[in-house]
Amino acid sequence: MKAEIIAVGSELLLGQIANTNARYLSERLAGLGIDVYWHTAVGDNANRLAEIFRVALSRSDLVILCGGLGPTKDDLTRETVAGVLGLPLQADRAWEERLETLFKKLGRRMTDNNRRQALVPLGARLLFNSQGTAPGLWIEHQGRSVVLLPGPPRELEAMFEREVEPRLAGRGGGAVIISRVLKVVGLGESAMEEAIADLIDSQSNPTLAPLARHTEVHLRLTAKAADRSAAEAMLSGLESRVRERLGPAIYGAGDETLAGAVAKLLLAGGWKLAVAESCTGGLLSHLLTNSPGISASFLLGAVVYSNAAKQDLLGVKPSLLREYGAVSEETARAMAENIRRRSGAGLSLAITGIAGPDGGTETKPVGLVYIALATPEGANCRRFNFFGTRETIKERAAAAALNMLRLYLLSNNR
Amino acid sequence: MKAEIIAVGSELLLGQIANTNARYLSERLAGLGIDVYWHTAVGDNANRLAEIFRVALSRSDLVILCGGLGPTKDDLTRETVAGVLGLPLQADRAWEERLETLFKKLGRRMTDNNRRQALVPLGARLLFNSQGTAPGLWIEHQGRSVVLLPGPPRELEAMFEREVEPRLAGRGGGAVIISRVLKVVGLGESAMEEAIADLIDSQSNPTLAPLARHTEVHLRLTAKAADRSAAEAMLSGLESRVRERLGPAIYGAGDETLAGAVAKLLLAGGWKLAVAESCTGGLLSHLLTNSPGISASFLLGAVVYSNAAKQDLLGVKPSLLREYGAVSEETARAMAENIRRRSGAGLSLAITGIAGPDGGTETKPVGLVYIALATPEGANCRRFNFFGTRETIKERAAAAALNMLRLYLLSNNR
């Protein structure tokens, strides 16, 4: 089964939005074993849309069009598709009534343009829109399946999952292609490449592709097989081999975040945590407190930007700040130890460094960051040299701190 | 001049990445007065690419292909385009030497596949790649311009701006289409629509389109004119009318952020700031400290998640917490006043609320947030009911706090 996706809308051709619907639909279709061979985007122009649609009908078994189902005069997809297929349009009484009820509730007048959204090509099946006023359409025509979906991603995705996917299941026939993402932190790119280079190079199916992000590396595992369960089994086999090589450098998979993984470990171990931040400016606290339920573990964060705050809030001695400076191992340790003692937490993290772009010197350049972890066994401090913009340095420092804590929790959680 | 963009890469058809290159190129071309009529994406398949490219040559004056210039056997764009145009490929000695030098420096062996990147169709002009190993190509052929760009966005964008845009300038001929974005905060959607509904509806050129984000509304102004300066003048005219209606609800334009606008006002007025956060968990401090130079204003932030932290770090009285609860106007005021006094800052913000998903009650539901601003004139507290996920509620609360501070600074900066 060959599939093709046509996105309709001048805003795409003006570069005002990216064609994220094509990405979403392609990923879902790959998971159903349906091969997508073409994406096309075309503006709100009936002639060019008709031409593109005719070409699609000539080469594809499944044509999915998105966008152009709205109530304005620029919305031409319904009429153009019906015209090319030679199908008359008829009002769907039930959908008209749904629209009338909706407009009455909103206290707005329903126009003829709104009424157009209830028009259905003869023989087409209407697809329910749980998020908006434009229904989708499914047309079977001379051995081709033509599906019209609304353009707003929220509407399109809800409709695809509810109305389209169930009808396509089992019709794929082609190979199922699915992916899984493993997330790696704390390993340099070259160290990671060395550890898994043979798996990256030698595999043509399943494949292993690294994608470097600011603070971590995502490994995408992709498998192609006759059906979903065979593809899943291939992914699991490859995943085991990758996990053998990288071990605890893999902090999670899929949508999981590093802070989320740390929060889970904190809660599982019944730990209390306090953090003191200078150059990360609250980012570490923010990331940790994104996890629901973290208030059972996270006691407090101190964003001690000024030296006065480091002294008053954390009791860092002025003599220590004078002798070693705010950006030093000694200050990082004192920040961690003092906030741990003051808060009564079992664990604490402290970060001090220079996020830039100004404030660097020859001996203490932008990107120099000290991170201390204080535990019941004592304090441990690491020195980092991060590069990048101010925001990137904040992100890298927060991630490094989270990872120090994660590795401690992995060894010490009972 | 009709333009068309062809993106090459199976990862697009598998939905692993979105076609952001087409968005970027379309926006730049619109600004040059070049009309883009089609986007196409096709996989790493020579036959389908050749077919698509032939169609593009038959209908477009400018065909831009992106992707498929890399060193692997899947990278077919260079050879396929040369084949369709009937142009032999020749090694570019200068680029070969550049690659040899680079590989020597990296201590890696250069393969025949790497050497393919220096192949150039007869008569083509090589486009410099400042970010990678694959040069771009510009081919003039029977009245058509064909441009090949590398797929990685960083390489493509640098090359387009340096090598392509200057050569396209003045060749547009069509209408120039440019946009400007104004950013609005603190106005409900319906209040904003009421204020500018006539400008949104009545305009066909320039147009005004609102886009609601979690914490703010972006107004996109778009103008179409014979040349750039005429289009800019139309945008400025519309911008003045919008600014008249919305006044200080517009905090900035383009890439500016709300926190950045607040940081600018803080620094301009020579203010010192301290913040105390409960439910936002450090997000407010993080946003403020993204601005370079903010250490001259931002003294400290306290993330007082637990009641103990509110008492110990901020001196909020246990009796007050017992009587009114941690999420109350009284606690918010005490947090703001105490951190202002303790830090010696002129201004302070405090946020306390329930970010959810758990912890809500009938009288204090998830999303209830109190925000207090303490100034030399006294403290002011507002009550909000935000909806959304935990992260959205954090974002909305931080934005509301920033906006309270912004409005104060607008009135009180000398």
Can you characterise this structure?
Chain A is α/β, with parallel strands linked by helices and 414 residues long. Chain A has 3 domains: 2-168, MoaB/Mog-like domain (Molybdenum Cofactor Biosythetic Enzyme, Chain A), CATH 3.40.980.10; 176-253, Alpha-Beta Plaits (2-Layer Sandwich), CATH 3.30.70.2860; 258-412, CinA-like (Maf protein), CATH 3.90.950.20. Helices cover 43% and strands 25% of the residues of chain A. Chain A has helices spanning 10-13, 20-31, 46-59, 77-85, 93-106, 112-116, 153-168, 189-202, 228-246, 258-269, 283-288, 307-314, 318-324, 329-343, 390-412, and strands spanning 2-8, 35-42, 62-66, 89-91, 119-121, 125-127, 136-141, 144-149, 176-184, 207-212, 217-225, 250-253, 273-277, 298-304, 347-353, 368-375, 378-385. Chain A has a 6-stranded mixed beta sheet, with helices on both faces. Chain A has a 5-stranded mixed beta sheet with strand order 14-13-15-16-17, with helices on both faces. The first copy, chain A, has a 4-stranded antiparallel beta sheet with strand order 10-11-9-12, with helices on both faces. The two termini of chain A are 52 Å apart. Chains A and B meet through helix 2, strand 2, helix 3, helix 11 and strand 14 of A and helix 2, strand 2, helix 3, helix 11 and strand 14 of B.
